[in-house]
Amino acid sequence: MTEPIDLAEATAPVVNLASDAQFMASKLLPPFDDDEIETELQFHHTWEIEDWDSLPDKLYSPAFDGGDYSWKIFLFPRGNKFNSVSVYLACAPKGQDPANPDKDGPHWTCCAQFGIVMWNPDEPSVWKENKAHHRFEAEESDWGFSQFYELRNLYNKSPTSDHAMIENNKVNISIYVKIVKDVTGVLWHNFRNYNSKKETGFSGIRNQGATCYMNSLLQSLYFTTAFRHAVMGIPTEDEPDKVPAALQRLFFQLSTSSDGVDTRKLTKSFGWDSGDAFTQHDVQELNRVLMDNLEGKMKGTSVEGMLNKIFVGQMKSYIKCVNVDFESSRIEDYWDIQLNVKGMKNLEDSFKDYVQVETLDGENQYQATGFGLQDAKKGVVFTSFPPVLHLQLKRYDFDFIREQMVKINDRYEFPTEIDLAPYLDESIVPEESCEYALHGVLVHCGDLNIGHYYALIKPKKDGHWYKFDDELVTKATMKEVLEDNFGGDLLASDLAKSRVSNISPSYKRHTSAYMLVYIRKSRLDEILFDDKVPQHIMDRVKAEIEEEENARREREEQHLYMSMKISSIEQFKKLNYFDIAIWKQDPGLEDQSPEAHAVVYKAKKSLTAAEFIDQIAKSINYPYPERLRLWRVGERDNKTKRPGDPVDTSSNLPLEQIFAKNLKVRAEINLYLDIADVDPTTGEVIPWYDNDLELGPRLLLFIKVFNPTTQSVHGFMTWVGRANQKVKSLIPDVLKALGWDPDTKIRLLEEVKPNFIEETDIEETFDQARIGDGDIMCIEKVESDLSSLPVGGYKTATDYYNFLFKRLHIVFRRRVDHDGFNDENDNSPTPDVDVWLSASDEYDHVSAVVGEKLNVDPTHLQFFVTNPNGTVKNVIKRKTIVSHMISSLHGVSPHIILYDVLPMSLKEYETKQLVRFIYLTDGISQEHRHEVLLPQTAKVQDLLPYFESKIKLSPEDLSKLHFWVSSNHLFSQEVPLNTPVSEVVKHDTLYAQVLSSEEQEWLENNTDLSEGIVIKVYQFHKDPTSTHGVPFQFLLKPGEPFRETKMRLQKKLGMFDKLFERIKFAIVDVQHYDERQGSPYVEDEDEVLYDQFASDPELMLGLDHMNRTPRRVHTERAIFIKD
User: Fold this and answer.
1) Which candidate in 133, 163, 281, 452 is catalytic?
2) Selection from 64, 79, 138, 130 nearest residue 108 by Cα
3) Which residues contact 1053 (CB under 8 A, 6 or more apart)?
4) d(CA 433, CA 492)
5) Which structural domain, as residue segments, surrounds residue 1059?
6) Where residue 509 falls among pLDDT bands split at 50, 70, 90?
7) 980 and 848 part of one domain
8) What is the helix (H) or strand (E) element at residue 613, kind and residue range?
9) Looking at 111, 212, 321, 434, which residue is catalytic?
10) 533 occurs within a structural domain
């Protein structure tokens, strides 16, 4: 019997009352979405207000206790800057007043979720609530709502009742509080006074602009202790500016710094500029180039091979026949594993996908050597896993609908532990467990083009997880490690528990893991251990930091100092160039010794000259400062810089006044430091100026010597004489200083200026020869032993000075073919040759010099002019001088000229023709590039012996070898065997392929079009004129539906199913293409293409798909680390 339903009762609304504490608590204090947040205490309290109108503008409720804290309600009955009742909750430790907590006492915090309810005590169905959470502390002891309830509505009827909030001048305010345990120490923290090192023991890393991706990787590597230990073992004393030294510094600072660590020193060692610091790159790419750099620096050291032991595993790619005993396999090292995320639920699914076996059968059978076409299984399997496993999650993919890269935010789960044994090669019995523990999660928050990176890391084997977000380091919960980084839609349970209001059910997380770090459980103690920074690294870094601090202080006091460049006899002796020292580092002086450069001194402007000389004497440990003399070095009209007159050190004028003229116009202050002669009788310094009219004034001359064996004009002494002495008077002193026989015949030349070197008449006086202070004399033997003259060397000082004036820095670099053509059998030397040549040197001289350096026959060298991008521009002709060789490279230093070592003399080589071709296999998917040298009269058929001997083609395959040429990736024409190679090389590319028997027959007997036609096929992306890939001919059969045509096309292309499925097929008339009309795509699988192509021979079949040839657009900055 059916019971009657009381409709009035069934539809009556449920009235929730503010007096129902259980209901209010459930509404205002919902469960947290993080199971690790524990409730310590939950309570509620009601403040009954009996006379609302008499309340002051602001007041506190009586105190009430809750847990270890005292609480008050802070009320603004008439509003706090707003036309609304303002109400707040105030907190303080017990024994303190919540209205005025002790800000100077011990630090305290109380994390609380709370709700405030204002309600009518006589009609509890009228109420207003709001909820929040807050971290209460002395600096922020109250929190609440400034616009809690509008003043104008206090006495008005509620929309849901006939009663107002305040009636009879009474109202209640209830507080519901849930005090929670702060398990991370940062729950609801504002981070205003947060110190990562103090709170967690770890330091963060500062973000330079967009280097958060790098920071997350660096923290992961730092806490891989075995890696850190290996880096600390790299010797860096001789390379303080290289990557290992900078990384050692960073790791030292991470272990000791109380603030965020700066990475500018590291990125500078990478060779990065500010543009790189503001460009986000791929973490995997950065990790690989960093490992390559460090691996190179570790060679020959005690830590060589350490990175391989930590990070490198091996995998096997194989193709195994099903019906015959044949397997083709290749073992490869890997530093990380890239796993698909799209379409996968979790990490296990991705590994299963990675080792998934593909069946090769039917039209896609495998050509097994010695067995012909066979059904086969193709796949990848792991043969070993490294102690530290880096997993790259492929969170980015190309969207063919939107035609752009997009981020995959699908939910993807990963465990804290995983057993990888199921993915090992079945034939391998592992020596240890393949169980791995999660150590790090690198996270990206945002979308493809914008976002932020941070890392979650477990530094200790049995320790806590921490979040490393640039400078901020905080303790993390397991929810933050796992669930928050799975991506995907928020779960329904999360939405119900979330503290965030108004979340759409379709809300997607844009925070997801993109790199996981797992450590083999059996190796945890080997990878994670306590490691101290070596003392020598600590000392070096501390010294660097102290030096940088001194430099900072110096910059702040820069206005009190002045800079001067000073040279001495030491610089003069090291110089192999014009003048007495290098005053400025100009292009073309890279080969000069650093010791030939004038030394920069900084001195206070207030010092006197004598005080400055004392400072210099101390810096060079010279005990007699009174003997030191400074000369002003000025620039002469002929652009040389020579000493002119001594600086007066007798006055007490400050340096600022002595060099006032230079400072006023901001001109360089260049000085020469000399040691004055001493009177042997008195021991007094002999003054430079005297009144000896007979001998004339003193002269300070600089003497150089030309050495044809070493090809140099080094300075070796200064000489002081008198203007009225004859030039030959210096010869005995010079010969004695050189240790030459007194009867040695020499020639004296004056270095007037770089392009003016003249012989001096030794019978004239210095005054007559117009030789004065600061002039340079060069000595050379009249009869030198030239038996040890180097190849291309200069015999006389005059010739050598002419070389110095015209010399150019040129690097000869082995030609690398940017089209990928290489001779695998070429074992000739490949180093760079760094030389200095005269602009007037001829080709044969250049060949002799470069041949000597390479230890090859100079007649076998060929040189090439380069384009700005380093590719070959054209061949340098044999009668070209050096200045013409580099005429197109103005502004570039050093100049780059490419060279090649020929298998024969250049003269003979010029009678040959270089033929380059691409041999295609596996359909057309595998390109093998070759080059062959043939006589200029050769024909294409002369390539066949190369195919037989080098490529090992059988006579049957040779008979089916087919050649064609293309231009701009479009099929140009077939190439018969009797075609002269001189005609072939005019085209972009020559292709060769062994055709199937069917293709061979149709190409040779294609007169009957009713049985099939051969069409041209090419590849493009979106725009039919944006061609790429290999063009080819294809047999189109009459009556064949397009679905069958596609199957044969896939076999011809040699493409896997996933790639082939993305191709769209278009019928294109390339010669008459109109972009406004576009090209018709073939949509119908049953369409027969034969009739359309047979009626119009100009048509081509276009394959529209993305060009997968790796290349960067010119605006994209490639990530790199310089050597």
Assistant:
1) 452
2) 138
3) 923, 924, 925, 1060, 1103
4) 38
5) 1008-1122
6) low
7) no
8) helix 609-619
9) 212
10) no
Q: Does residue 491 have a pLDDT over 70?
A: no
**Residue 220 DSSP label:** H
Contact 703, 718 (CB under 8 A): yes
Q: What is the pLDDT of residues 638-669, one digit of tens each?
A: 889 999 889 988 888 999 998 988 887 788 89
What angle do helix axes 225-232 and 243-256 make, rounded to 10 degrees?
Answer: 130
Question: Is the Cβ–Cβ distance between 180 and 112 less than 8 Å?
Answer: yes
Tell me: do 34 and 70 sit in the same domain. Answer: yes
**Could you confirm whether 111 is annotated as catalytic?**
no
- Indicate left, alpha or beta for 477 from its phi (over 0: left) and psi (-120 to 50: alpha): beta
Render pLDDT for 551-561 as a digit per residue (tens, 0 to 9).
888 788 888 88
Mean pLDDT for all residues in the chain: 86
Q: What are phi and psi for residue 756, nearest 5 degrees?
A: -145, 95
Tokens 């027969």 correspond to 1088
DSSP string, 744-770: --EEEEEEEETTEEEE--TTSBTTTTT
pLDDT at 265 over 70: yes
∠ CA 360-366-371, rounded to 5°: 135
Q: Are 142 and 107 in contact (CB under 8 A)?
A: no
Q: Is the peptide bond before 894 cis (omega within 30 degrees of 0)?
A: yes
Q: Which residues pair with 642 in a beta bridge?
A: 634
> DSSP E strands: which ranges in 824-948?
833-838, 861-866, 872-875, 895-901, 912-921, 926-935
Residue 584 and residue 723 share a domain: yes
Neighbours of 640 (CB within 10 A): 19
Per-residue model confidence (pLDDT) at position 532: 86
Q: Are residues 632 and 660 in the same domain?
A: yes
Sequence letter at residue 897: I
User: Any idea which of 94-103, 249-258, 361-370 has the lowest mean pLDDT?
Assistant: 361-370
The domain tally of the chain equals 6
Residue 891 CA to residue 894 CA, distance in Å, equals 9
Residues facing residue 1066 across a β-bridge: 1081, 1102
3-state secondary structure 323-334: CCCCEEEEEEEE
Among this protein's residues, is 212 annotated catalytic? Answer: yes
Q: What is the pTM of this model?
A: 0.57
Q: Is the predicted pLDDT of residue 425 greater than 60, yes or no?
A: yes
End-to-end, the C-alpha distance of the chain in Å comes to: 91
**Rounded Cα gap, residues 135 and 142, in angstroms:** 9
Q: How far apart are the C-alpha atoms of 520 and 390, rounded to whole Å?
A: 11
CB-based contact 522:387 (threshold 8 Å) = no
> Is the domain of 838 the same as that of 699?
no
pLDDT tens track for 1045-1057: 888 888 888 877 7
CATH of the domain at 1031: 3.10.20.90
Closest CA to 223 of 254, 257, 263: 254
Shared domain for 87 and 128, answered yes or no, is yes
Any domain includes 339: no
- Same-domain pairing of 203 and 133: no
Q: Are residues 73 and 156 in the same domain?
A: yes
Q: Are strands 912-921 and 313-321 parallel, antiparallel or unpaired?
A: unpaired
Vertex 813, ends 837 and 933: CA angle to 5°? 115
